[in-house]
Amino acid sequence: xxxxxxxxxxxxxxxxxxxxxxxxTAAYLSASDKIRLKEVLNVxxxxxxxxxxxxxxxxxxxxxxxxxxPQEVCxxxxxxxxxxTATPESLYYVSSAWKSLASCGTLPVxxxxxxxxxxxxxxxxxxxxxxxxxxxxxNVGQKKGDAAKLIKTLQGALKKDDSLLNLGYSFHIxxxxxTDGTFAFDRIEDAVVQADEVxxxxxxxxxxxxxxxxxxxxxxxxxxxxxxxxxxTGDQAVKFANYFLSRRSVQTAKGxxxxxxxxxxLTNNKFHLPVAITLASQAAVSSEQPRVSVRxxxxxxxxxxVEPLTVTAESATRxxxxxxxxxxxxxxxxxxxxxxxxxx
Length: 344
Known about the structure:
Blueprint: E1 4-14, E2 22-25, H1 31-41, H2 50-63, H3 70-81, H4 88-101, H5 110-121, H6 127-139, H7 147-160, H8 164-175, H9 187-192, E3 196-198, E4 202-204, H10 209-226, H11 234-245, H12 253-268, E5 273-279, E6 284-285, E7 293-297, E8 309-318, E9 324-330, E10 332-333, E11 341-343
Parallel strand pairs: 2-5
Antiparallel strand pairs: 1-6, 1-8, 3-4, 5-7, 7-11, 8-9, 10-11
């Protein structure tokens, strides 16, 4: 029996088009990746620090997992909400987790609204504090004050410091303001051009996973709010996806949550559809095993919802001498998994 290695160039075609088309990557968040990320998030259930609890609660929701000992988590959050040292950041953590749990009852909001309202009233508030205040008020169903004043304060803060971090926060703030958030849309392009390309495969921002996730997620959420495609090409979208998927071994609760959140955003936005094409069999073929299978999914490992879907081997070359062994050959759906696995 002779075994031959074959290199494939696979193309995806659909009759449904998302923005400038499907873009492809060679990885996705597998079941084992999700289990490992869940284990990273478990540090939050020690109930030792508020940020870790926040990331654990929100991360578990993204994974579709049930939060353990929810009443103890609710008690911990309530204690932090009533703390005399509560800050905009801590109130953001509390309100986000409380809202996500949806089982803690009513959160006393009087002191929260007072503290956060003062942040929005101050002309000297920082961009991060404005973000925490706006998000927390949204979480507890309260008004965010005068939009025009908020925008003026935010633009003034950005004139002093339009760092990538502040731009990322501003996109998330603007996404909460409806059509009033249009003022920040043009800044998305200003941010994207600062991304670093690595090995012609990855796009990331200086500062790593947390800042890259903040900016990319915020850009797509703002684009959805103002109903305009973000100034991000399909090629850039897949390079960002490649970077995020390369960080699947992240070791902190914050990193695990950021990864899950941004991958969900890239998977479920209205503008780009990054597609993962991975081998479901060995690449080598032989007389006894002449078929090759590929798996086609979104970044979360789920079958694509767009139909009909065609998967074509544009070309296949023999490893070693680069001889073309087939061209424009259509893959057929697998009888065992017609939604995600295709065989040639």
